[in-house]
C-alpha cells in the first residue's frame, strides 16, 4: 500500500523504517522543508512500540511506557511539529505503580507509588517497610541520588567507561536496595548492570527523578510515530507502508537512494536508516562499500537482550495498578546471572514487568472493566533462543501465585519474544542478533564517545534510532537520535 507518490521519484531524504527513530527524523526534516520519503515494511509506524488493533481491543505489540513521563524528548517533538493536541499524553494520578518484592524471608511485600515522584515521606517509609532500609541505608541512598542529580560535564563523560553496578556498590547500599535499583536499570536498558555504562544510567535516572516513570499516549503508545508519519505526507513527502526496502543504492561511492521490494526506486540526496546498523551496513548497503575496520567494528557490536512475554486481554480488572515490577534479591541481572539462566539455572522469581495500557487509557478496551496488558521477562536477543519459552513459562508460575484468578479471566493470550520482535523490526544478520528489545546495548565501549556515529563512512548514508545518535531509555533514546540526526542531515545536505 502506498500513500503519496509512486514510481521513480526524487527526494531530499529517504528514510528506511518508521520506528521511533525513523518517524522522528522524517517528520522533523519534513518540518524543516525537506521533501521526505518514509518507507516502512509493516502496516503501521511505531517499530518495537507498534500499537495493534484486534477486534474491538487496541493494545501494544510488545508493551511500552515513556520514561521520563514529563519533560521528555516526546514533549519537544509534538511541540515542534505542532501536533500535541492529536496525541494527548497520559500520566495517571495517584499510587498507580505497584512494586512486588519477594523478601529473603519468602514473604511478598508490596509498595504503591505514583508514576511521578512527589518526594512524599510515605515513600521513605515504604523503603523501610519493603526493603528493610535503616537510617544509614537511607543516607547511602540519598548520597547516591545526590550524585545522580549533580554529576555533569567531564565527570559524567568519564563514566562512559565505568560499569554501573561497580558505581552503585561504591555507595554501600544494602542488597535489597541494590536489587531495587538494578531491577529498574535492567528494565530501562535490558543489559547486564555490571557493564551498563554508568553515564547513560545516571542521566536516565536523573530524568526519571525529575520527570517520573511512566507516560502513555492516548489510543496507543505508537500513536506519536503514526502522527509523525502522517505529518510527512501532510508536508509534501511520501509514506509507503507494507513495503520493505531491499537495498540502498550506491553510485560512485555515495548512497543515492533506495530500492524497495515493489521495485520502487526512490532517489534521494541522503538515506537515513532505522533498520539497525548491522542490517543496514551488512545487508541493505553491503559491506563492500565500507572500510574493512568499520565492518569489523559493526560486526562486533553487541545488542541489548530481548524481552519475551504475553499480551493478555482480560474480561475483568485483575490488576489494580498501571505498572507492576516483580522481583527478589536473586532476580536482577548482571553477566554472571544471565549466563546461569542461559545454562538453564533460573532464579525462582525472574524480573517481570507488567504494563497495563488500559489503566492509562480505558478507551482501549471494548467493554468497560476489561483489561489489556503485557507481561515481560528478559531473554537472549537470538530469535531462535529456547530462553524465550522458558521465560514465559516461569513468569506464568509467578503470576499464578500472585493473581490466582488471572486464568479465569483471559479472553486472549498471545505469547511473543525475540523471534516476533526481529520479524516486526530488524532482520537477524548475525548469529545471536535481531530480537534485541532496545537496539545497541548501552554498555561500556558502546556509549558516549564510543557509540557509533550516525554518519557512516559511506557518504550520504546515516543511521537513526537506538543504534546511533541518541541517549536515554528505549523510545526516548530513539527520539533523541531522531532530533540529532535530523539536525546533522539538514546541515550536511545544505
Ligand atoms: C517488549 C519490549 C518492551 C519495551 N518496553 C519499552 C518501554 O516501556 N519504554 C521504552 O521507551 N522502550 C521500550 N522498549 C524499547 C523500545 O521499544 C525500542 O528501544 C525503540 O522502540 C527502538 O526504536 P528504533 O527507532 O531504534 O527502532 P525500531 O523500533 O526497531 O524500528 C525500526 C523500524 O524499521 C522498520 N524496518 C526495518 N527494516 C526495514 C526495511 N528493510 N524496510 C523498511 N522498513 C524496515 C521496522 O519495521 C521498524 O518499524 C521495549 C521494547 C520491547 C521489545
Largest beta-sheet details: 8 strands, mixed
Cα shape: globular
Radius of gyration, Cα only, in angstroms? 22 Å
Helicity level, as a percent range?
25-40%
- Characterize the quaternary organization of these chains: single chain
Distinct helical segment count: 16
- Write the CATH homologous superfamily of the largest domain: FAD/NAD(P)-binding domain
Whole-number total of structural domains:
3
Beta strand count: 19
Any idea of the CATH class of the largest domain? Alpha Beta
Describe the protein:
The protein is globular, with a radius of gyration of 22 Å. 35% of the residues lie in helices and 21% in strands. The longest helix is centred in the last third of the chain and has 20 residues. The chain has 3 domains: 226 residues, FAD/NAD(P)-binding domain (3-Layer(bba) Sandwich), CATH 3.50.50; 95 residues; 119 residues, Alpha-Beta Plaits (2-Layer Sandwich), CATH 3.30.70. The strands form 4 sheets. Strands 1, 2, 3, 10, 11, 12, 13 and 19 form an 8-stranded mixed beta sheet that branches. Strands 8-7-15-16-17-14-18 form a 7-stranded mixed beta sheet, with helices on both faces. β2, α1 and β3 form a beta-alpha-beta unit. α1 runs parallel beside α9. With 494 residues, it is of the alpha/beta class. Flavin-adenine dinucleotide binds next to α1 and α16. Flavin-adenine dinucleotide (FAD) binds next to α1 and α16.
Which helices and strands appear, and what pairs or packs with what?
Elements: E1 2-3, E2 9-16, H1 20-31, E3 36-39, E4 51-54, E5 57-60, H2 73-81, E6 89-90, E7 97-102, E8 108-113, H3 121-131, H4 135-150, H5 153-157, H6 164-169, H7 175-189, H8 198-211, E9 216-217, H9 223-234, E10 238-240, E11 245-251, E12 254-260, E13 265-273, H10 277-286, H11 292-300, E14 306-314, E15 323-328, H12 335-342, E16 352-355, H13 357-360, E17 371-379, H14 387-402, E18 410-416, H15 418-424, E19 461-463, H16 474-493
Parallel strand pairs: 2-3, 2-13, 3-10, 7-15, 13-19
Antiparallel strand pairs: 1-10, 4-5, 6-9, 7-8, 11-12, 12-13, 14-17, 14-18, 15-16, 16-17
The structure holds flavin-adenine dinucleotide (FAD).
Amino acid at each position: 500500500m502506498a500513500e503519496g507518490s509512486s514510481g521513480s521519484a526524487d527526494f531530499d531524504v529517504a528514510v528506511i523504517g518508521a520506528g521511533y527513530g525513523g518517524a522522528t527524523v522524517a517528520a522533523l526534516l519534513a518540518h524543516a522543508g525537506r521533501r521526505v520519503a518514509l518507507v516502512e515494511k509493516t502496516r503501521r509506524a511505531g517499530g518495537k512500540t507498534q500499537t495493534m488493533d484486534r477486534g474491538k481491543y487496541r493494545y501494544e505489540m510488545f508493551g511500552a511506557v515513556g520514561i521520563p513521563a514529563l519533560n521528555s524528548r516526546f514533549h519537544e517533538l509534538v511541540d515542534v511539529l505542532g501536533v500535541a493536541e492529536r496525541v494527548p499524553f497520559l500520566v495517571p494520578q495517584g499510587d498507580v505503580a505497584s512494586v512486588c518484592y519477594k523478601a529473603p524471608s519468602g514473604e511478598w511485600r508490596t509498595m504503591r507509588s505514583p508514576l511521578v515522584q512527589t518526594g512524599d515521606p510515605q515513600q521513605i517509609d515504604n523503603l523501610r517497610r519493603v526493603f528493610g532500609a535503616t537510617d544509614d541505608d537511607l543516607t547511602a541512598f540519598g548520597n547516591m541520588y545526590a550524585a545522580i542529580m549533580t554529576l555533569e560535564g567531564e565527570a559524567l563523560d568519564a563514566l562512559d567507561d565505568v560499569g554501573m553496578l561497580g558505581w552503585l556498590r561504591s555507595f554501600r547500599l544494602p542488597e535489597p536496595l541494590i536489587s531495587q535499583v538494578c531491577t529498574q536499570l535492567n528494565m530501562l536498558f535490558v543489559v547486564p548492570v555490571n557493564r551498563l555504562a554508568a553515564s547513560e544510567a545516571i542521566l536516565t535516572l536523573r530524568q526519571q527523578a525529575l520527570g517520573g516513570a511512566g507516560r502513555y499516549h492516548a489510543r496507543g503508545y505508537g500513536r506519536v510515530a503514526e502522527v509523525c508519519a502522517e505529518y510527512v505526507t501532510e508536508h509534501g513527502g511520501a509514506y509507503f507502508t507494507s513495503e520493505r526496502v531491499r537495498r540502498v543504492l550506491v553510485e560512485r561511492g555515495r548512497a543515492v537512494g533506495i530500492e524497495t521490494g515493489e521495485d520502487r526506486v526512490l532517489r534521494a540526496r541522503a538515506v537515513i536508516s532505522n533498520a539497525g546498523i548491522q542490517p543496514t551496513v551488512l545487508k541493505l548497503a553491503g559491506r563492500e562499500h565500507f572500510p574493512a575496520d568499520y565492518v569489523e567494528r559493526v560486526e562486533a557490536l553487541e545488542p541489548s537482550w530481548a524481552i519475551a512475554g504475553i499480551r493478555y486481554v482480560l474480561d475483568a480488572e485483575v490488576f489494580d495498578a498501571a505498572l507492576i515490577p516483580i522481583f527478589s534479591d536473586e532476580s536482577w541481572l548482571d553477566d554472571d546471572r544471565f549466563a546461569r539462566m542461559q545454562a538453564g539455572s533460573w532464579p525462582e522469581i525472574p524480573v517481570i514487568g507488567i504494563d497495563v495500557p488500559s489503566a492509562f487509557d480505558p478507551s482501549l478496551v471494548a467493554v468497560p472493566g476489561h483489561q489489556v496488558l503485557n507481561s515481560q521477562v528478559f531473554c537472549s536477543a537470538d530469535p531462535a533462543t529456547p530462553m524465550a519459552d522458558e521465560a514465559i513459562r516461569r513468569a506464568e508460575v509467578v503470576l499464578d501465585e500472585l493473581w490466582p484468578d488471572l486464568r479465569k479471566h483471559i479472553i486472549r493470550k498471545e505469547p511473543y519474544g525475540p523471534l516476533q520482535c526481529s520479524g516486526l523490526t530488524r532482520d537477524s544478520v548475525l548469529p545471536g542478533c535481531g530480537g534485541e528489545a532496545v537496539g545497541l546495548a548501552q554498555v561500556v565501549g558502546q556509549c558516549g564517545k564510543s557509540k557509533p556515529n550516525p554518519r557512516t563512512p559511506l557518504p550520504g548514508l546515516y543511521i537513526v534510532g537506538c543504534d546511533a545518535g541518541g541517549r536515554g531509555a528505549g523510545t526516548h533514546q530513539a527520539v533523541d537520535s531522531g532530533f540529532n540526526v535530523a539536525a546533522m542531515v539538514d546541515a550536511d545536505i545544505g
